[in-house]
Amino acid sequence: MSPRKIIIDTDPGQDDAVAILLALASPDEIEVLGITAVAGNVPLPLTAKNARIVCELAGRTDIPVFAGCDAPLARKLVTAEHVHGKTGLDGPNLPDPTMPLQEMHGVDYIIDTLRSAPANSVTLCPLGPLTNIAKAFNDAPDIIEKVQEIVLMGGAYFEVGNITPTAEFNIYVDPEAADIVFKSGVPITVMPLDVTHKALVTQPRNDAFRAIGNTAGIAVAQMTDFFERFDKEKYGSNGAPLHDPCVTAYLIRPDLFTGRHINVEIETGSDLTLGMTVADWWGVTDRPANATFMGDIDADGFFALLTERLARL
Ligand code: RIB
Ligand code: CA
After folding, report:
1. Are 239 and 227 in contact (CB under 8 A)?
2. 13 CA to middle of ligand 2, Å?
């Protein structure tokens, strides 16, 4: 089977970095057409820089990296340096990138790439706020039919929220963008906190990353060493949740995940619950299903895949 063509839209972010490394280590299953950076965990100049740092860490300076939107569609940017550090990639000491940032705006790259692609042929993998995706759909609605699937990290149902009591960060930062994406009609697969909070980098799993011994494995161990402190303190968990790599792992091994095809709508009106993914997990409404919302993960299988693939870099 030919590899799935994808665009990764990202706000690196240590977990974004691991998701990108997993994709780049899996050329039989995934062809990364390009990476578009979005403002999220840290401001856009840093996410655009970090995306290139990760490509160079994977030895893939051939991957075009674009800067997209530097703020949400209709709100002030909220960032997460408290989780990811001031660089967004705290932990390892990685060199500044030498590969160039592409001139074209990330949203224009998404539009141009989809316009020149056959119908249902490109998968979009958003790992941050959905600003770039929503703006591309708004600016060029004709591209929507070109999207094979959107596989995104965002939202929550049983886990409710991580940036507010009711909202997950990626959705909360740009709820209007999320609303546009979830109403777009594109097939959507969601990796919510309900799944990612079960993908914890325990010490043995982190030791396994470090034991790979290559630059990527050691860097990933140092990244998770850094960003686990926030979640361990907040949730008392025994490791960092590896949110974004669930997206790229799904493209390689969908069998690692289970979920339901349900209706998911986004709160954009209430200040109290802004950015909440109102997921009809129990089917109590007659609202039409618009997303496959994952609820469980084979965590041991996920980490075995991740460790095996990082060792290839
Ligand atoms: O809530 C977790 C998500 O927000 C992850 O994608 C993390 O990288 C941040 O973007
Ligand atoms: Ca992210």
Report:
1. no
2. 6
Quick one: pLDDT at residue 128? 98
* Residue whose token pair is 């665009």: 7
Which amino acid belongs to residue 140? Answer: A
Whether the predicted pLDDT of 230 surpasses 90: no
Cβ of residue 126 lying under 6 Å from some atom of ligand 1: no
Segment 185-212 mean pLDDT: 97
Instruction: Give the integer Cα–Cα distance in Å for 145 and 155.
Output: 24
> How far apart are the CA of 211 and the centre of ligand 2, in A?
25
pLDDT grade for 1, boundaries at 50, 70 and 90: confident
> Which residues does the annotation mark as catalytic?
243
> What does the block give as tokens for 143?
């591209």
Closest residue by Cα to residue 29 from 8, 62, 2: 2
Residues having C-beta closer than 5 Å to ion ligand 2: 11, 13, 16, 127-128, 244
User: Residue 43 has what pLDDT?
Assistant: 98
Q: All domains of the chain, ordered by start, with CATH?
A: 4-310 (3.90.245.10)
Q: Which whole number is the average pLDDT over 88-94?
A: 95
Q: Which residue carries 């906190």 as its tokens? A: 193
Exposed (0-12), middle (13-18) or buried (19+): which is 270, by Cβ within 10 Å?
exposed
